[in-house]
Amino acid sequence: MRTSRTTERRAAVLGSPIAHSLSPVLHRAAYAELGLTHWSYDRFEVVEAQLPAFLTGLDESWAGLSLTMPLKRAVIPLLDAISETAASVEAVNTVVIDGGGRRTGDNTDIPGMLAALRERGVTAVESAAVLGAGATASSALAALSRVCTGPVTAYVRSPARAAEMRGWGTRLGVDMRTADWSDAADALAAPLVIATTPAGATDALAHRIPDRPGTLFDVLYDPWPTALAAAWSDRGGPVVGGLDLLVHQAVLQVELMTGRAPAPLAVMREAGEQALLAQKT
Length: 281
Fold this sequence. Notes:
12 strands, disordered N terminus, six-stranded mixed β-sheet
C-alpha cells in the first residue's frame, strides 16, 4: 500500500440536515485503502446563509468539499469555475480546491448514475420514466440524455414542476413529456424507471408493478429497501439502489480531490453496507 505526503489534507461534506450522511464513511474507507494517512474527511451542518463564511474560512489544508441540499445551487456564485457537467444542470455536488485556493465546482451525480446503471448492464433504453421533479430529477434527466434514445416521461405533482421538467428536457436535449402524479403507476411499465422522490412517496405503487418489470433505479439508500424496490425485486426486476449511486459518485469525488485513481470502489461499497447494517441494529 502506498503512503501519502505528510502534509495534512482535509475534505468534508456540507449540507442540512447532514448527520445521516454516509459520505465520511465512504471517503475515510478510500483514504485508508489508498494509504492517505494524513487525509481527513468530516461533516458540517451548513445552511445556505452560512456557506459564504464557511468557504472564506478554509485554509490551505483543504482539498475539497462534497455538497448536498440545500447547497448544490447556492455554491455556484461562490466558485471560480464550474465544469460543463455541473453547468448543464446548474448543480454542484463537488468542489475541488487547488493549492492556490481556487475553487472549481463539478457534478459527480450524473456520471455516478451512469456508472451505477452500467454496473447493472443498462447502457441504452428506448424510453424511461422519472418519478418526481426535484434537484435529483434534473441530474437523472442529464444521465438519461446519454442512455435513452426515446421519450422520457416525468410524473409530477404540480403544473409548475411539470413546466420545470419540460424546461430541463429542452435544455438537455431530451424528448421530455410530463404526466400527473395520479397516473404514476403508468411509469412502472417503462424499461427504466428512476425514482427520485422522498422516503414513502412511492410506497403506494408497490402493488402496481407489472409482471415483467424493466430496471428500477431508486435513489434512496435509507431506509432500504424501499417498499417499491422490495416489490420490484420480488417480481424479478433488476434494481439499482441509492447506495450504488452514492458509492459511484463518491469514487469520482475521491479521485478528483486526491488525484489518485482508481478509487477503491469495492472497499467503499462494503464500508457503506456495513454502516447501514449497523444503523439497523
